[in-house]
Amino acid sequence: MLKRTHNCGELRSANLNQEVVLNGWIAKHRDHGGLIFIDIRDRYGKTQIVFNVELQPELFEIAKRLGLEDVIGVHGIVMSRPEGNINSQMSTGDIDIEVDQLIVYNESDPLPFDVNDRTSAMEDHRLKYRYLELRTAELQNHLLLRHRAAKATRDYLDSNDFIEIETPVLMKSTPEGARDFLVPSRIHKHKFYALPQSPQTYKQLLMVSGFDKYYQIVKCFRDEDFRADRQPEFTQIDLEMSFIKQEDVIDLGTDLVKFIWKSVLDVDLPQVFPTLPYHEALETYGSDKPDIRFEMKLMEFAHFVEQSEFNAFKNVLAAGGRVKAIVCPNGKNYSRKTIDELTGYVKTYFSAKGLAWMKISGDTLEGGISKFFTEELQRKIISEYEANDGDIIFIIGDDPQVVFSALGALRLELGKRENLIKPGSWAPLWVTDFPLVEWNSDSNRWDALHHPFTSPNFEDIHLLDAEPGNCRSLAYDVVMNGYELGGGSIRIHDTNLQQKVFGLLGISTAEAEEKFGFLLNAFRFGAPPHGGMAFGFDRIVMLLVGSSQIRDVIAFPKTTSAASLMDNSPSLVDQQQLDELGLLLKG
After folding, report:
1. What mean pLDDT, rounded, does the chain reach?
2. Which of 105, 193, 247, 552 could form a disulfide with 547 if both were Cys (CB 3.0 to 4.6 A apart)?
3. Architecture (CATH level 2) of domain 294-420
4. Residue 499's pLDDT is what?
5. Strand (E) or helix (H) holding 313
6. Would you state the pLDDT for residue 176?
7. Where are the alpha helices (H) located in 70-136, listed in sequence order?
8. SS3 state at 436
9. Residue ranges for the chain with pLDDT beneath 70
10. End-to-end CA distance of the chain, in Å?
């Protein structure tokens, strides 16, 4: 083997006439008669090497037979390129290596796709050969940036006296909102471990143990329905602190996000992130993770409905529903066909019954449902919304949850269509004052909006008995450009309050003891006030690299159906393994 002296991205004109050794993969091969030019690549870059038939006829013949992605090692002399052949697109573009020794370590079979062009194959095909896709410059840059983001995280938290502590991967199954991945125990027949959805109970136990500042960059697992920014196994930046208030966690989370963005992208985020209460976020943007890079806020429309003759929306209001609107510029771009497409979008994906609209023409409204509003009422709508000639108003009336989700999603779609988002802009914010619980009509009970250890807002504890739905929690999310980066809460550290919340959630004393007895017992021995949060590390990196799916920043991801096309997992196991575990498969 030729032991490399340099990587393929570092040689410059300052290295002229030096003897060097490079190892790597062949990225390009060009035969110019008596000269063969090859680009050799490693993760640091590319260097052009040259074989001259007059100087090394035997090596020249070997080089002629080399193919793309063959792995080679070369020894040679660094030479200056002729003036007209300098390649300003390559960091090593002003030099060549004149080869005098060559070793072919491995010859590659014909490639299933071009690793120099990631778009040369569909994603499923690339995932099947993920180890080849990882050779692409794009994914290598993504994983390098992921490494830098992880290092920045550790640097920041270490400088603030946090201790990195690993917690178990095999744990007890506890209700945390999603289905657990279960692991059968061979030794303890008919019993199961669960893979952690988060280290929630363990980090609270660490607070009881006196480790007042804990963190880890940790794998978590959730058996849930997937989408572009979800995976069955994902990575969190998990942290917890003792003797703190909500503002302390928000301040630390703000500074951590700022540090990562500065370290990785050299971007200065705002000194203080704006804060938006949960209900205001829904009312204004239709989402608890709003993208505030552009305006187009949701407007109240109910008072106009009450003065109109549009009975369909009046019936919605009478049934306890909501009617809200957004004003979009460039109404001329929205033909009836386009409006029908948008209507199908909100119906199909958000269960809206329909999408009403009106276009502004001077000081009146036309088209859509405009005929149900008097001219005077039309002028009031235009004035109150500060709408301009040529704008279009979209309105949805439905169940409140449908209105918020559908109109919020439509807002994002229109923002993209109208290019309202400035490229390269960053808009972080905190969303606070989440409800403690939400009503589960299917099960006829209250569910924790976050998890059962989230503390009620101390100002609202009196509401737990009579109006639990109006009780705020001490929970908070940090949002960036419409994506939730992370979330957390101040935890309940008082046993009596924890039992009261369990009761509200329908968790009996026996069930609480079965599921969380180890944690409740720990609280009996002196639990400090504590709180923390978890950041979605994959999602942070996804945003940093400018992607829209976390598969792009995970080395070996699963598909949206939680399958690995590369190693064909999940897979069947043999009967002997099932017998050892005492398992019988059904169906």
Report:
1. 95
2. 552
3. 2-Layer Sandwich (3.30)
4. 87
5. helix 311-318
6. 59
7. 123-128, 130-133
8. coil
9. 175-177, 226-229
10. 55
